[in-house]
Design brief:
heterodimer; A: 85 residues; alpha+beta; 3 helices; flat; B: 136 residues; mainly beta; Cathepsin D, subunit A, domain 1; 6-stranded mixed barrel; 3-stranded antiparallel beta sheet; 2 helices
Chain lengths: 85, 136
Amino acid sequence: MTVYDTIEVIIDIKNDMKKIDFVVLLKNYTSGWVAISADFSKVVLSGKTLREVIEKAKSIKEKLYYFPAGESYGDFVGADQLSVL
Amino acid sequence: MTIPYSPLPDIRSKVVLAPIVPVTFSCEGHSLATFALVDSGASGAVISTVIADALGIEWDKLPVSGGFSVGGTFRSRMFEHLTAKVLDHTFPLRVNVIEGIAPYKCILGQADLFQRAKITFEAYKREFRVEFRKYN
């Protein structure tokens, strides 16, 4: 392995994104929408509608990612074949 | 960048794995960060009407057209003035705003993300890789 290969490996490691685990994040949310922290580690806000969560988030400066809670993903075409029981 | 497949919930207590990327949409002063399914089988990007509302898109005033997928027929409206930011890369995006799409509210496909980046799926490793093309 050359020094350039080593640098590429280091760059690859630095470039890997951490897993976004919606099962863990949404464990306590069965409906509505949530706002997830910028490091994807926790739910910061929740509400019945996306509009409501966005309104609540106006006082928060951190970037937030919005995602629906309560959806069931197993029925999406083919999803059954790539699942973990 | 290598991205692990995301575990997603299912009502039957099993975990579904899917290639998901964070994406930030912008449109005329509105912005919304969410997550999109990276779907090599999708012709182009779609968003739900809920996300369109949050971006200030008056989707109900756009011309409606019918479409079909493996799941059946749907009503969609083309919106051409969106900007998407994925992994620090920003690009213009045409999206179909679709009524009642579930469970994914946002999907990126062949006409958009796949034109911008080389995407390698390694489902056996539970991960995929997104390498954006370099433009001069």
